[in-house]
Request: fold
Amino acid sequence: MIHRQLSACAAISLAMAVFPAAAEDLTIGLASEPTAVDPHYHDVSPNNALAMHIFSALGELDADQNVHPSLALSWDTEDDNTWVFKLRDDVTFSDGSKFDADDVIFTFCRVMNNEGSVAATASSEVTNFASVEAPDPYTIRIKTKNVEPLLPELLSQILVLSDGIVEHGDLSFDLENDCGVTGAWPTVDDFNNGDAAIGTGPFVLEKFSKGAGITISRNENYWGKAPEWDKVSFVPVPSAGPRLAGLLSGDYDLIENPAARDIGQIEKRDDLEYTAAASNRVIFLQMDIGREDSPFVEADDGSNPFQDERVRRAVSLAIDRQAIVDRIMDGFAQPAYQFVPDGMFGGIENPEPLNYDPERAKELLVEAGYPDGFKITFHATNDRYINDSQVAQAIAQFLTRVGIQTELDAMTRSIFFTRRSNKEFSFSMGGWGSSEGGAASFLRQYVTTENDDLGVGASNYGAWSDPEFDEVLLKAITTIDENERKALLQKAEQMAVDKLGFIPIHFESSIWAHRKGLNYEGRKDQYTLAYKITSDAGE
Amino acid sequence: MTLFITQRMLQSIAVLLAVSVAVFLAVYAVGNPVDLLISPEATQLEREQMIARLGLDRPIWAQYLTFLGNALNGDLGTSFVHGQPALSLILSRMPATFELVVCALALASIVGIPIGLWVGLNDGSIASRMVMTGSILGYSIPSFWKGMVLILLLAVWLNWLPASGRGETVEVLGVPFSFLTLDGLRHMAMPVVNLAIPNIALLIRLTAAGASEAVHQDYVKFARAKGVRRQTIVRRHILRNILIPIVTVLGVEFGSLIAFSTITETVFAWPGMGKLLITSIYQLDRPVVVAYVMVVTFIFVTVNLLVDFAYAVLDPRVKLVERMS
Reply:
C-alpha cells in the first residue's frame, strides 16, 4: 500500500517536472481580427502578430524593436551590398521536415509570386535583391541592388515558409523561371485551412475560423524555448466594452487595448492587473507648407501662414501636451518631443521638452505678421487613434486661444485617409508607428521631400521640403555602419524637430489587461504574442 | 396564382436592380479603399498596381456593369480584405445570425402573443396597464445599453453566462450551429434575449390592441350570443383575425433582424453577418458591403412574398389574384 502511494507520488512529481503546473490553456480577447494566417497576405499588425506564433523569420524584433537572431544565428556584411546569414541547423518545421536555406529561398520567391495578397507584403524588400545564393545548406548570401542597412530588420518581417508546401525541382532565386517551383503557388486559403500553415514557430494552427476565433496549440517540434501554454484561443472582440466585460467575467485571460478610462475598474479588482507600455506610435500635426494657396487656411492677406516657420513654432507653443496626456489620455500616453519614443534607434537622447507658452505663441504670430491671427480648418480622424477626436478638439481650442481660429472637422478614417492622400487638407492630425529602422521610419516616410525613385516622402502630404535635411537623411538610410547611421539619424531627427516641418504631440501607450498571475512585457509594436506571456505558476 | 407569382417575381427583380445601383453608387462614393489597405510606405507604382488589380482605375459605370454581369453568374465580387468571394463570406456568417434571429423571434412569439392576448382581453385592469407601460420601456431602451446591462448582470456579477462569443458548435451538413450544445446555448442565451425583448414588447402591444378591438366586433358578440365557448372564441375568432398584422410584423422583423442584428452581434462578439458588415464598412471593403445589401434585399423581398402567402392561408377572404388589380 505504502509502496503504491510512493510510486503514485513519484509519478505525480515526475509529471509535474515534465509538465509544469502551467500546462494549461489561455484565452485572449483581440481588439482586431487577423484576416489571414498567410504571413505574406497583408502587412498589418493583427495578421503579423498571429503569423509570428506559427512562423519565424531569420531575425526577431524584441519589445523595443531591436533585432536579434532567430532562424539565422548571425549575419554580417562582406561589402555594402552583400550580406551573409548563417542559419541554424537544428530547426524542424511543425510537420517534422528539416529547415534549411532552400526554405528561405522559397520564401523569398513566394513573396514575389503572391497573386491574391492585399498589398504584396515585403515584396519591395525582395525586389531589392540582386541575387540570393546558398553556398551551403545553412548559409544565405544576399546581394542587394541598393544599399540597405536595415536588411536584418526587414528580414525579420518576412516569415519563413516550408518549401514542402509546393511541388518543386531544384530551388534557386531565379524569379524568371519561378525559382524551380513546378506546382501551384499556395493561396491565402491554403494557409487559412491549415494545409500550408507549416512553420517553425512556437505554435501550430488548430483552427482559423473568421469571426469566431482562432485556436493554436504548442508546436512539439519547436526549436526555441517552449511556450507555457498547451493551447491558446484568440477571440476577436472589436468593441472595448464587451472586451472588458469578457475579462471581468472570466471569459478571457488577457485582452488587448482596454479603454484607458476603464483602467480604474481593473485597479479596483484584486484578481486583475494591467500592463501599459509606451508604443512606437506618435501622434503629430501635419501642415500644408508646399502650397501658397491652401484650401482650408484663411488669412487676411491671402497668404499661407504655415509657410512661415514662426507660425509653426507658435502652433507648437500653443499646445499643452502634458494637459492632453493627463486629462484626455488618462495618463496613458507620453508627451512627444520628437518622432520616436526614447530608446529607439536614431532618436535624440533626452530631447528638449517642447514647452507650453501661449504668450510667446501670440508674440510669434505678431512677429510673423498675423496680429489678428487667421482661420483654419483642422482635420482629424475620429475612429483611428486613441481618443483622437477629443485630442483634436483640445488642440483646436489651444490654437483658438492664441488667436488661430480653428474649426475642427473630424471624420471616419476611411474618408480621412482618402482625402489626405489626395492632399485635400491644410492642417491635419496623423499617427505613425515606427517599427523596423527606428527613427528612419517616420523621417523617410513623412519628412523627406517626395521622391518615388528613392522610395522616400510618400506620405509628405504637406510638401515640407528642406534640402539640408534631405541630404542628411538620405545619407543616413544608406549607411551600413551602425554608429555612423545612428549619429546621422539623430542629426536628421533634431533638424526635423527644430524646423517644425511636423509637430509631435504625444506617444500613445499600449495597454493589456489580464488576470493576476500573468506577466506580459508590453511591446512597442503593440503585438500580443502568447509565447511571451508567462504565468507566476510556470516560473 | 401563377400570374401573381410571376408578377411578384418581376417586381422583386426590379427592386434588386434599383437597390444595386443605389448601393453601388453610394458605397463607391465614400472613399478609396486603397488608402486603407495599402501601407503608406508603398511606392506610387505599387499603389497603381493595386488599384488596377482591384479594378478601381476604371470608370464607375464600367465597374457597375462588370459587377452586374458577374452578379448574374452568382459572383458578387471578391472581398478586398479577406481575398474570398464576398458571397461565400456572407453565407458562411449567415447560420450564426440565422439561429440567433429564429430563436429570438420564437421566444418573442411564445412570450409576447399570449401576454398581449391576455392584456387585450382584460383591457383596463391595473395589471394590463402595467404590462402596457412596461412594454414601452422594453421597446425603447437602446439595444447596446441593454446588452451591456445583461452582460454586467449575468456574466460579470452573477457569473452565470459567458459574456461573449459563440461557444461550442456542432456541424450539421457542414454548417456549424450553437443551439445543439449546452455551451452553445449558454452563449446564445443573452444575445437571444437582447434581440427578443423589443420584439416581445412589440408583439404585446400589437396583439393587445388587436384583441381589445376584436372583442367589441359584431362577429365576436354574435359568437358569444350563440353560446360558443370563450376559449374557442379567443382561438378561432379573435386570434385568427388579429394574426394578419402580427405575421406582417414578424416577417418584417425577421428581415430586419437578419440584416441589422449588428448591434447585438457587436456587443456579444457574435460572429454573424452584422459583425462582418461593421468591420467591412470600417475597412471600406466595398464588395462585401454591396453583396451584403444585395443579400439582405433578397431576404426582404422573399420574406414579403412569403408574408403575402401567409395572408391567404390565414384569411380566406384574401384572394391573391384580386390583390393584383
In short: Chain B has a mean pLDDT of 82.
